[in-house]
Amino acid sequence: MPTISRFFGITIRMFHREHAPPHFHAHYGSDDVTIVIDSLRVLAGRLPRRAMALVLEWAAEHRDELQRNWFLANGHHPLEPIAPLE
To answer: What does the alpha-carbon distance between residue 12 and residue 1 come to, in Å, rounded to a whole number?
Structure first.
């Protein structure tokens, strides 16, 4: 699964040819969560509250880039890195 961003110990990844709805995966320590891009709703999993807040802030800032990577991934094209949260 390609990594598209990293910040504050959080890794953001996206699979190629994934199932709908468009989503991404965030990993922090031993926890992980799957988040729907359009609504930023949790599809599965969990993160500690602070890590989740950082992921949601980052995702809100980069929603268009996430959507673009989703379409690239489904076409089995290389994904584009997305700037980390600063």
So the answer is: 10
Contact 51, 31 (CB under 8 A): yes
Q: For residue 36, what is the DSSP state?
A: E
Residues of the chain with confidence (pLDDT) below 70: none
* ∠ CA 33-17-31, rounded to 5°: 15
Q: What is the pLDDT of residue 20?
A: 87
Q: What is the largest distance, in Å, between two alpha-carbon atoms of the chain?
A: 33
Which amino acid belongs to residue 49?
Answer: R
Torsion of CA 30, 35, 37, 39, to 10 degrees: -140
